[in-house]
Specification:
Structural class: alpha+beta
Strand order of the largest sheet: 2-4-5-7-6
CATH superfamily of the largest domain: Histidine kinase-like ATPase, C-terminal domain
Order of helices and strands: HHEHHEEHEEHHEE
Number of helices: 7
CATH architecture of the largest domain: 2-Layer Sandwich
Distance between the termini: 9 Å
Length: 255
């Protein structure tokens, strides 16, 4: 079996993800559903409580001060935006779980999907003044479910933008091995001790360094990769940046 670039994938074995990034017993992909609900409820509680407090303050008289009112309404908007992002990510996890036994893969163009992801996140990158570059060979193809692969790219690029200071760069690059690519940034990086934890649900790197987030994006990435039998490795250096390298296997024999 050859992919559209001509590489022979019929004899390629599918390796397990690196041991430092695998989800063991009790990890995000195996956790009891009641535990996931409890964690989600905890995360949802804070923005809801903040919105309620802000509205109560407005009703108690803050509406009379135009500047205070404007500032608080901006806070309400930010909290509702955070709430929306959290709900969207939770729904994405549910969709991935539901399609676990119905995965429909096909050859997809890495360049087309990377261009789409960069365009979809253009507003976010412009707001941060971060350049997103797609350095992908036209002959690079990935064997994956298109919708779920888009989730992987969108989450990885969005995460890179979030942790990259103004003037920095996020790059999507095709690698030498068939089905492999990298998402690299010139961001704040992270310590070696943090890397094994970043794919856990609701885990967030120090908010003071990047403005927080839902803590679900990389968990969704890991769940989709496990579903595809794909590998991911992470290299990072604090103050220099991070690089996520991914490798998707081709179709199994007879596919």
């Amino acid at each position: 079996m050859k992919d559209p670039s001509g590489s022979d994938l019929s004899k390629k074995s599918v390796e397990e993800p690196p041991s430092t990034l695998r989800e063991g017993s009790g990890g995000p992909t195996e956790r009891d559903p009641s535990s996931i609900i409890a964690e989600a409820s905890h995360e949802l509680r804070l923005p809801i409580a903040n919105i309620k407090l802000l509205v109560e303050t407005l009703l108690d008289g803050a509406l009379d001060d135009r500047e205070v009112c404007k500032r608080m309404l901006k806070r309400v908007y930010q909290e509702s935006d955070r709430l929306q992002a959290l709900v969207t990510r939770l729904l994405s996890i549910e969709v991935v779980a539901e399609t676990r036994h119905e995965l429909k893969c096909r050859w997809i163009s890495l360049k087309e999907r990377a261009d789409y992801a960069a365009e979809a996140l253009e507003k976010r990158s412009l707001e941060k003044n971060v350049r997103v570059r797609v350095e992908v060979e036209p002959v690079s193809y990935i064997w994956a479910n298109p919708e779920q692969f888009d989730q992987v790219l969108l989450n990885l690029i969005e995460n890179a933008i979030k942790f990259t200071p103004s003037g920095g760069t996020v790059s999507v690059k095709s690698l030498e091995n068939s089905g492999s690519f990298a998402v690299e940034d010139t961001g704040i990086g992270m310590s070696a001790a943090e890397i094994p934890r970043i794919f856990s649900r609701f885990y967030r790197i120090d908010k003071s360094r990047a403005g927080g987030g839902t803590g679900l994006g990389l968990s969704i990435v890991k769940q989709v990769l496990d579903l595809h039998g794909a590998k991911i490795s992470v290299r990072s250096q604090e103050g220099v940046g991070s690089c996520f390298e991914l490798e998707f296997p081709g179709p199994s024999r007879g596919a």
